[in-house]
Design goal:
Number of strands: 4
Number of domains: 1
Order of helices and strands: EHEHHEHEHH
Mean pLDDT: 96
Distance between the termini: 16 Å
Strand order of the largest sheet: 2-3-1-4
Number of helices: 6
CATH topology: Rossmann fold
Low-confidence stretches: none
CATH class: Alpha Beta
Length: about 150
């Protein structure tokens, strides 16, 4: 039975690092929206276009992921999964194609996230974007940490 790994956390929490580790240890296919978006953007500072592309890229990745899960291939999605509703929807759709779901929650205090992001911002790796402190603070307010029942 295939496993869908949902990587949940805010920017700077270590989602990509964990996803890459799982990619190797679980022989899974990893989907990172930011990497695909970076390849499509003409201007990496165009937030409006980045947001427009995010929905499209995540939808395409999910279509491929569901097909892979149905074929018995493990998949990793590092979308962040900031809301309970989103996590529930992906879980239900994965289970509908016969996959099990494992939620990975990466948590860190806001100041630690900002410390990591500041370091990353100074030398942006490929497939990442500049994150401003005010963005992080705004996103943190809308983030819904998973509850215990979501891990079963």
């Amino acid at each position: 039975m295939a496993t869908l790994h949902l990587i949940c956390g805010l920017p700077g929490s270590g989602k990509t690092t964990l996803a890459k580790q799982l990619e190797k240890s679980e022989s899974a296919v990893r989907f990172c929206p930011d990497e695909w978006i970076a390849d499509l953007l003409l201007n990496p500072n165009d937030r409006k276009e980045m947001d427009r592309l995010r929905d499209i890229v995540e939808s395409i990745q999910w279509s491929f992921a569901k097909r892979l899960l149905a074929l018995g291939v493990d998949v990793i999605l590092e979308n962040g999964f900031w809301s309970r509703e989103e996590r529930s929807r992906f879980r239900a759709e994965a289970e509908a194609v016969g996959a099990k779901v494992k939620l990975h929650f990466l948590d860190a205090e806001l100041n630690e996230l900002w410390r990591r992001l500041s370091k990353r911002n100074a030398k942006l790796p490929s497939g990442t974007f500049l994150v401003r402190r005010e963005d992080l603070e705004s996103w943190a307010k809308s983030f819904e940490p998973p509850t215990e029942d979501e891990f079963s």
